[in-house]
Amino acid sequence: MLIPIGFFGAGGAAGAYELISTTVLGSSASSVTFSSIPSTYKHLQIRGVARTDRNVAFDNLIVRFNSDTGANYSRHQLEGNGSTVSSSAETSQTSIKTGRLTDATSTTNAFGAFVIDILDYTSTSKNTTVRTLTGAETGNTNRTIVLNSGAWLNTAAVSTITLDRQLGTNLLSGSRFSLYGIVG
Amino acid sequence: MGTTTYTPLANITLGSTATSVTFSSISQAYRDLVLICDLKGTVLIDIRLRLNSDTGSNYSYVYAYGDGSSAASGSFSGDTQMSLDFISYATSTNAHISKTEIMDYSATDKHTTILVRGNSGAGVDMSAQRWANTAAVTTAQVRPSSGSFAVGSTFALYGIAA
After folding, report:
1. Residue A27 class from Cβ within 10 Å (0-12 exposed, 13-18 middle, 19+ buried)?
2. What single string gives the DSSP state of each residue in A60-99?
3. Reduced to 3 states, what is the DSSP secondary structure of residue A7?
4. Facing residue for B110 by CB, picked from A6, A135, A174
């Protein structure tokens, strides 16, 4: 069954899922920050692809909220690396590590991808919880797929989100980070 | 107020069995595509995905799954297609459901990366997959490994704003 869909691509009716901001790196950058996030949504989602300049093994995408660099984050993850499945957890971390990106050791033009759900981000009665799916088909043995649950142990509303690389120096040109709001 | 998105591009419910479902002339106006499948097969089937009709050995993937008694991970380099299931196969009685995120599909400076989560009565799986081509995605074909997609199978494609 062949479905030509070009002419279906008109804008949809007003709905609950809205693009707030997109950053596409035209040159290397150490991190990307979404600031002054509107408080008018119920949940947020970050979608994107990224590659770093680390030239050893692998690199990870990390997330911080409200510029908090203290040991106020924890996470659990389920990871497949192409040969084994593993589960791990970390507490008292300075960021939420969501999973691997591609880096300088990966196949040229390969980017890691991620979808990060940030639930109830405006609430001031609960810690911020995130769920992430991050995958990097690197073209070598560093490939992974990771399902991650993370928490920022702070009840403040989220107004700033920083996405960063854990180990390398920079996120590379072509990396893209898009923030979406889900209306409650 | 942001730009409303998650635009439905196509929503197909099979009124008869089909050996493939192809989305063609995909609008390049979006950032990502999301493919939602809820399907059964006329026989036990795995669910495959090809982009831009590329039948070459240009697809690679890493996956993990659990079937209720064990968990496993694997990978493949240079396959002739992607897979939307690694344990979450469909049968004539058990449906496969999956959400496939086709990221940056209109970009021409990177390979196309997809993230997939699949579920069925057989198990749950997740994967990261890469089409080793920098071309923009204009066609996406979903096909069963054998047999046909059953009547009532649904396929929905959404565009996520740039």
Report:
1. exposed
2. EEEEEETT--SS-EEEEEEEE-SS-EEEEEEEEESSEEEE
3. helix
4. A174
pLDDT of residue A5: 52
Q: Return d(Cα B22, Cα B8) in angstroms, integer.
A: 16
Query: B residues 77-106 near A, CB within 8 Å?
Result: 77, 101, 103-104
- A5 CB within 8 Å of a chain B CB: yes
Is B146 within 8 Å of chain A by CB?
A: no
Share above pLDDT 70 across residues of chain B, in percent, rounded to a whole number:
99
Does the model's ipTM exceed the 0.90 cut? yes
Of residues A175, A59, A135, the one with CA closest to residue B117 = A135
pTM for the whole structure = 0.95
Average pLDDT, chain A: 93
Residues B39-57: tens digit of each pLDDT: 999 999 999 999 999 999 9
Q: What is the DSSP letter of B137?
A: P
3 state DSSP class of A6:
helix
pLDDT at A18: 95
d(CA B43, CA B66): 22
Burial A13-23 (b: 16+ CB within 10 A, else e): eeeebbbbebb
Tokens read off for A36: 């002054």
B51 token code pair: 């982009």
Find chain A residues with C-beta within 8 A of B73's C-beta: 80-85, 145
Task: Give me the pLDDT at residue A11, please.
Answer: 41
Name the strand (E) or helix (H) holding A156. Answer: none
Q: How far is B95 from chain A (nearest CA, A)?
A: 20
Q: What is the pLDDT of residue A9?
A: 37
- CA distances, A16 to each of A13, A87, A128, A131, B123 (Å): 10, 34, 21, 19, 31
